[in-house]
TrEMBL record:
Record localization: Plastid, Chloroplast
Keywords: Chloroplast, Plastid, Repeat, Ribonucleoprotein, Ribosomal protein, RNA-binding, Transit peptide
The protein, known as: Small ribosomal subunit protein bS1c
Species assigned in the record: Oryza punctata (Red rice)
Gene3D superfamilies: Nucleic acid-binding proteins
Region spans: Disordered: 1-29, 375-402
Length: 402
């Protein structure tokens, strides 16, 4: 029976009429079975290990967050407080710029507090962008703490405050040394002009401006200046252009010939700019001949050579002349070109005459002092007494011998 059943089971049954004939199933790859599950690949095993580690760490954070930590949160706060820096208002602190924005820059000051440098505190000058003040990421600088934002406890820093202190100190030194500085005119009003000196805004009254220019005409020009008042507490910085000009004039000896430009004409004369110094060429010093109308001889913008006649250092005024440079009287009216060509030669003659006049004046003082050993030559030059010149004693000796 068993053999018959086995034989029957092994026979293939013919398909029913009309039913589709099935194809034999394709052989499948045998899968390895380990304890009833598929074997994992190497990558799958690594992912499974990482998932288990993550689950374990998550469970520890939930149930025992301080497990394995050597100190408590209180210990951490105490350590931070003990190493924190002085953040009082007015304190100086070193920091590193790590990010800039349109409104300023964020600074790392090695503290738990956030620090910010506003744009208007970046430098003494007015700038539109933080980079114009030289502030870039990575810059290490010393800042001053000027405020604290109560909302988020952000410290407000300043570079301007430090630069301002240094600028005032520098101005005090320059005033003590009586130094001439250069200031750029950036504004003005009816009383004078505002000039930028050492990064600070100083006031120059019109009474201390050597030229007759208006505030509008002086804008963006650079003026030589001296300090009159430096008061940091009152914020007063007063400057003088006239005093600075007086120092420059000291180098212009009487009789010097300089090149100048006609600035303006007045009924009594012409104002001449001689390299930043404003001088007056009086109508009586234009020519030996009478000048009825100055505009017939000079016009604003004309360039000419003039000679220094005198200067008032205290008032910052210089008197000029072209009359002394005329080869013949009236040349300044008839042939000004000749006057300028002969200017140096005529000035030399003028200086010689001045020197002779001074020598004769000194000789008059020494006339009754023969023991001085000085004498006046026939040319009017004061010099040592010649050894071959007869003295009163030698004359008396000759008379005796005779």
């Amino acid at each position: 029976m068993a053999s018959l059943a086995q034989h029957v089971a092994g026979l293939a049954s013919p398909p029913l009429s009309g039913a589709p004939r099935r194809r034999p199933a394709a052989p499948t790859r045998p899968s390895a079975l380990v304890c009833g599950t598929y074997a994992l690949t190497k990558e799958e095993r690594e992912r499974e290990r990482m998932r288990q580690l993550f689950d374990e760490a998550s469970e520890r954070c939930r149930t025992a967050p301080m497990e394995g930590v050597a100190f408590s949160p209180e210990d951490l706060d105490s350590a931070v407080e003990s190493t924190d820096i002085d953040t009082d208002i007015g304190s100086l602190i070193k920091g590193t710029v790590f990010m800039t924005t349109s409104n300023g820059a964020y600074v790392d000051i090695q503290s738990k507090s956030t620090a910010f440098l506003p744009l208007d505190e970046a430098c003494l000058l007015d700038v539109n962008h933080i980079e114009e003040a030289g502030i870039r990421a990575g810059l290490v600088e010393e800042f001053m703490i000027i405020d604290e934002n109560p909302g988020d406890e952000t410290l407000i820093l300043s570079l301007q405050a430090i630069q301002q202190d240094l600028a005032w100190e520098r101005c005090r030194q320059l005033q003590a040394e009586d130094v001439v500085v250069t200031g750029k005119v950036i504004g003005g009003n009816k009383g004078g002009v505002v000039a930028l000196v050492e990064g600070l805004k100083g006031f120059v009254p019109f009474s201390q401006v050597s030229s007759k220019s208006t505030a509008e005409e002086l804008i963006d020009k650079e003026l030589p200046l001296k300090f009159v008042e430096v008061d940091e507490e009152q914020g007063r910085l007063v400057l003088s252009n006239r005093k600075a000009m007086a120092d420059s004039q000291a180098q212009l000896g009487i009789g010097s010939v300089v090149l100048g430009t006609v600035e303006s004409l007045k009924p009594y004369g012409a104002f001449i700019d001689i390299g930043g110094i404003n001088g007056l060429l009086h109508v009586s010093q234009i020519s030996h001949d009478r000048v009825a109308d100055i505009s017939t001889v000079l016009q604003p913008g004309d360039t000419l050579k003039v000679m220094i006649l005198s200067h008032d250092r205290e008032r910052g005024r210089v008197s000029l002349s072209t009359k002394k440079l005329e080869p013949t009287p009236g040349d300044m009216i008839r042939n000004p070109k000749l006057v300028f060509e002969k200017a140096d030669e005529m000035a030399q003659i003028f200086r010689q005459r001045i020197a002779q006049a001074e020598a004769m004046a000194r000789a008059d003082m020494l006339r009754f002092q023969p023991e001085s050993g000085l004498t006046l030559s026939s040319e009017g030059i004061l010099g040592p007494l010649s050894s071959d010149a007869p003295s009163e004693d030698s004359g008396e000796g000759q008379t005796t011998d005779e």
